[in-house]
User: Which sequence fits this backbone?
């Protein structure tokens, strides 16, 4: 039996990393993909492997990625080795990009998309709390809305208020179809 592949997507400040960390703590059986990204690793950031652009392109040339994409001037890749558990029935989740989903869906037609959302005021407060960007940069981010491509279906997880409630919604989305129940 094959595992399920999930892509967690959403705008900056929606709380993807927070929800993902909490869900994975509750469900250690799900494999979280460690992406390869062309930026330096930072303490207290999402777990990823930071590489140079040259190293990224070398890996891409050697066909080491299941898929890759570019966003915001960076390259992102999902190593093929990170998806190996799918063949043995393990569920796998990765932090994805809304713009890359159509291409990924072509390679993985059973991809399940989880869209984390939050209103702009909540996102602005979260982004400001990170202390990594100026107010002007935060406003630019908030203007950069990227809807899902036409025809893509997603399970939406609203993270405007209680992180506990949003985490429960994410955990419900990760349950096998036969175990799902309504969260209100």
Assistant:
């Amino acid at each position: 039996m094959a595992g399920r592949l999930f892509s967690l997507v959403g705008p900056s400040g929606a709380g993807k990393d927070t929800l993902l960390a909490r869900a994975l703590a509750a469900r250690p059986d799900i494999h979280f993909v460690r992406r390869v990204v062309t930026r330096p690793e930072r303490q207290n950031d999402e777990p990823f492997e930071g590489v140079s652009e040259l190293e990224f392109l070398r890996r891409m040339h050697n066909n080491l990625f299941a898929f890759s994409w570019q966003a915001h001037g960076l390259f992102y890749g999902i190593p093929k080795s990170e998806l190996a558990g799918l063949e043995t029935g393990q569920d796998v989740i990765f932090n994805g990009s809304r713009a890359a989903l159509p291409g990924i869906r072509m390679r993985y037609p059973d991809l399940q998309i989880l869209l984390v959302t939050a209103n702009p005021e909540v996102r602005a407060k979260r982004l400001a709390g990170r202390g990594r960007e100026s107010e002007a940069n935060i406003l630019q981010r908030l203007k950069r809305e990227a809807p899902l491509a036409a025809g893509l279906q997603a399970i939406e997880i609203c993270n405007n208020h209680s992180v506990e409630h949003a985490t429960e919604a994410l955990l419900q989305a990760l349950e096998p179809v036969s175990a799902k129940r309504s969260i209100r």
Summary: Residues 178-184 have pLDDT under 50 and may be disordered. Strands lie at 5-9, 31-32, 35-37, 48-50, 65-71, 74-79, 92-95, 112-117, 155-158. The helical segments are 16-26, 53-61, 101-107, 120-130, 135-143, 163-174. The radius of gyration is 16 Å.
